[in-house]
Amino acid sequence: MGRKHGKKTKNRESSHTYIGTLDVTRSGVGYVIVENQKKDIFVRPQDFNRSLHGDRVKVKVTKENFRTGRMEGQIIEVIERKRTEYIGHLEVNEDFAFFIPEKGKGMPDIFIPANKLNGAKDGDRVLARLLEWNKKDKNPNGEVVNLLSALNLSDLSMKEILVEAGFPLEFDDEALEESERIPDKIPESEIKKRKDVRPVLTFTIDPADAKDFDDAISFRKLKNGNYEIGVHIADVSHYVETDTALDKDAYLRATSVYLPDRVLPMLPERISNELCSLRPQEDKLTFSAIFQISPKAEVKQHWLGRTVIHSNHRFTYEEVQEIIENKNGIYLEEITILNDIAQKLRKQRFKNGAINFSSQEVRFKLDENGKPVGIVIKESKEAHQLIEELMLLANRTVAERASKEKQGKKELPFPYRVHDTPDEEKLLPFVDFAKKFGHKFDTKTPEGIASSFNKMLQEVQGKPEQHVLEQLGIRTMAKAIYTSENIGHYGLGFVHYCHFTSPIRRYPDIMVHRLLQEILDGKPEVDKKMEKKCQHCSERERAAMEAERAANKYKQVEYMQQYLGEEFEGIISGVASFGFWVETILHKCEGLVSIQNLLDYDDFRLVESEYCLVGRRSGRSFRMGDKVWIKVISGNLSKRQLDYDWVIAPEHLKEEKAKAKAEKKKNK
User: Fold this and answer.
1) How far is the CA of 224 from the CAs of 221, 294, 368, 522, 570, in angstroms?
2) Residues 173-209: pLDDT tens digits?
3) CATH class for domain 3-80?
């Protein structure tokens, strides 16, 4: 519609239908985002047809503009709701109530009959669930799930983050009942069906605060000089059967969510912390990958199948690290050999094209009320790498086995974990930036890019530019996803890869276990919905990561509020036309320095290719990776936002630097 250059533009009537995701803007209008469509489909609020923000919908195109490609449409079906639970308050009448949501784009009030108030009263803040929305009803029907009686503001904020991300706070009653009905004792008939690994030395290595131990390692020396190393994974699929209430609830969540002060598990604790947790001195059902490996870390043969194990000992990562470093402790010989094998596997993996990005995890130390009182930085050490390399080996081996299974001429649909090559649009500017620090990239092949990354990461260790190049390098990478289209895992350097080792906290692993058993039985079934399930699991994984980021940001603000007005040294972690972000070195907490704060000094403009802001008059620059001093000026918990002011480094530091420089010159 409309005119341009004096010519009329015609819309044509259209009857095309598409499936996509509805995105409702702040103004209330909607756009249906369709994969592989260049332009989104515009939808007016009156044409939403009971669909809500984030829903997967079928849209019928009613108008189409030939010249611009713009389409307008009506939603004709809601295929899948993104979320059904909302936080808000109640307005209770005599026989019914209305739930008024606090957040949710274009979200209407929900009608709740008196018998579904669950004890809630007028004005109460509650969690409500949308049950149905019939064509004849103006408002959806729902029920109160529970009263939001929070311990404190932080507790409530964490619950809000989870609900907004579409994760139910409570398990379905039927799912809980199913989990409680499962007997503790393993029937002898089940043990007879499995390989019995109970006589073999077996132990778990997990974080100190872990409650669900979903993997164990067994070890024994063989007469031929090789080692038998078993990777044993909790057999969740034995307890969670397809299409049960437990299975449906687990699929809906698709992942556990880890916030700083809590875990929202994918499965009820009866499953995750009791039946399937590989606790010491207990017989447990597992799904295993057992390898015969030479002292040179060559895999000579492997076996996949269901087992029963008995863990002899529970280690923490810290205990194993101490044994490795001090060469003293229980099962010293076994841990030393396993560590040696893991380090050789790791070295081989990087030689074969895996990219060696270092991982550093920042966690909050919390008091009994969940309030942050300190920062803990966890680095990946040899104890972590021991488990990591053996899990990667198991995951890769299972995926390789699945890839050999054919249905006619086609591969069997299987939930692979894939990682694409870097996006050229992101990679090339980074390559140009890395050149400024003397790093050359071979961009002719994916293998050349990986090799260049590893060379750069090795060379920047301990240098001022290390932080910026590592961070920007990670940003060039594609996101790993689940899909039945196996394109390999670029970051790990694997042709075949899947997730097999964490079925307690990831639904794709349960899918892998079920399908692997069908393959081993020689009766694999083709799941026509496999790709849809993979997409759902990828979407839930992204939602969980966003919730985790939001919760970490909230805790950062909560922690830094005690330092208002104080000055700290930090590193510029990002730049934009409206300012730059700084992460404090001491607390690893990120805040924004607004460009308004810099107007007294100069007029700054963004130079994207340099990842920096540059002053027009002075030439002063603020580049990503630079060290700067900031003052903490405000912390907004509701926005989860920290605001910093840039300040000139304190005088005593300037003097110390000048003395050090003079001393260095003198010594020359």
Assistant:
1) 8, 9, 54, 32, 56
2) 999 999 999 999 999 999 999 999 999 999 999 998 8
3) mainly beta
